[in-house]
Write a sequence for this structure.
């Protein structure tokens, strides 16, 4: 790809457009902008700009299009697959200053926001007004556009679905600078191809999101969590399909193993309610009446005890719930703190194959003499499996990591799973996506990219390229 290198003319144009205080070059660009949360790949943009409006995004994109300059969109940088890394240099557009909550429409149950609003700010804003935005990815400092671009799921997906299910409308800027609105506040739309749903999960390769209209729900009045220890992982995971079939409708069903809990305890310097068992299910239930929630969690508690659970810990106060879910939310940081470097396998397998896949990772630990830690969403089969570098040198680490990943992704395919459940493909997982899908499928994806971005300027080298 023969992209234009940034020169003084380009810098002058962008400074004239945005002002000197929102254009950064050379050593004035922080190293933080060269990588995402995992940092497996690193590259600096030639120029980084901060934008405040859709019109500014449009003008930057049109200039890049006319001059054949690659562009990467950046939010909080909490991604895990290198999707926001500018591997071809060019322009990085930092969207975090576009962070206004523009409208809460109580009649239509929608919230309209700019792309840089953080997930935790959305949750707080709507809950204070007695509304509820269900998607709940682990990283609460992620921007909403980042969530949309990866179609993030999170712990409540088992009951409420994923981010795409809550995006009613988008304002987008196409690679040539044209501004377009797709979707809106309507509940149903069968008017041609759904451009909105194509952009959701596209990882910044098709268009720049400059505004999102989100679906809200009334805030549930009661929330209760259950922590359920089991003698082993097989017993815990085999109980999950029975919970789903019980119609008790848990909001979340998470699985965790003892070694991850111990890491979280050390990281947070707080004790977990119980750390003596090999495997746990963590569930939450919500509803509008205490009776409804109690009936549902009582059904599941009895079912789990019948299936061999060792106990059921009920957390029905804010303090107890916080002690459990804060530990669950710290798992990734705790794993990172326990080693020198990590990389992640974010596969999704059928619910009844979760235990089989996790047991396979235990085999890989012994086969390759490497530490592997895992946790995830048992309710929807989305697993987060981390390979730890520890004291390996770089050459040994790269070799073992490649071999272990190849084994895990192959096993996921054999179990009818997919490469990524919610973190996306980005740059890091491209080889495994190409292994998963045949040439016809990948050609279709490439042609969709070509229709949006004929010059391949927007986030090139990611997902299907």
């Amino acid at each position: 790809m023969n992209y234009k290198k940034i020169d003084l003319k380009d810098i002058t144009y962008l400074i004239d457009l945005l002002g000197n205080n929102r254009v950064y070059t050379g050593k004035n660009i922080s190293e933080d902008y060269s990588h995402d949360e995992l940092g497996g790949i690193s590259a600096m943009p030639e120029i980084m700009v901060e934008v405040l409006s859709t019109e500014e995004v449009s003008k930057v994109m049109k200039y890049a299009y006319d001059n054949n300059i690659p562009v990467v969109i950046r939010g909080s940088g909490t991604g895990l697959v290198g999707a926001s890394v500018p591997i071809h240099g060019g322009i990085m557009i930092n969207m975090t200053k576009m962070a206004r909550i523009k409208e809460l429409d109580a009649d239509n149950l929608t919230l309209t926001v700019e792309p840089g609003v953080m997930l935790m700010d959305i949750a707080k804003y709507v809950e204070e007004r007695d509304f509820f935005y269900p998607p709940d990815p682990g990283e609460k400092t992620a921007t909403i556009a980042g969530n949309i671009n990866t179609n993030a799921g999170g712990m409540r997906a088992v009951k409420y679905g994923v981010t795409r299910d809550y995006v009613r409308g988008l304002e987008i800027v196409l690679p040539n600078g044209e501004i377009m609105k797709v979707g809106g506040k309507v509940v149903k739309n069968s008017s041609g191809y759904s451009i909105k749903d194509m952009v959701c999960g596209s990882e910044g390769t098709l268009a720049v999101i400059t505004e999102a209209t989100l679906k809200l729900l009334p805030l549930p009045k009661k929330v209760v969590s259950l922590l359920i220890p089991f003698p082993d992982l097989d017993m815990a995971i085999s109980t999950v399909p029975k919970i789903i079939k019980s119609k008790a409708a848990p909001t979340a069903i998470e699985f965790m193993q003892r070694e991850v809990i111990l890491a979280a305890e050390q990281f947070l310097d707080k004790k977990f309610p119980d750390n003596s068992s090999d495997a746990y299910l963590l569930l939450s239930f919500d509803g509008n009446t205490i009776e409804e929630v109690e009936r549902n969690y009582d059904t599941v508690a009895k079912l789990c005890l019948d299936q061999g659970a060792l106990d059921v810990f009920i957390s029905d106060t804010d303090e107890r719930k916080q002690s459990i879910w804060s530990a669950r939310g710290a798992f990734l940081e705790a794993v990172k703190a326990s080693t020198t470097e990590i990389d992640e396998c974010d596969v999704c397998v059928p619910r009844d194959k979760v235990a089989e896949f996790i047991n396979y990772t235990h085999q890989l630990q012994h086969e390759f003499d490497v530490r592997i830690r895992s946790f995830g969403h048992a309710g929807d089969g989305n697993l987060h499996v981390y390979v730890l570098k520890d004291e390996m040198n770089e050459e040994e680490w790269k070799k073992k990591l490649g071999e272990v990943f190849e084994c895990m992704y192959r096993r996921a395919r054999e179990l009818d799973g997919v490469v990524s459940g919610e973190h996306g493909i980005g740059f890091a997982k491209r080889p495994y996506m190409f292994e998963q899908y045949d040439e016809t499928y990948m050609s279709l994806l490439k042609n969709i990219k070509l229709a949006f971005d004929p010059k391949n300027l927007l986030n090139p080298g990611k997902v299907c390229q």
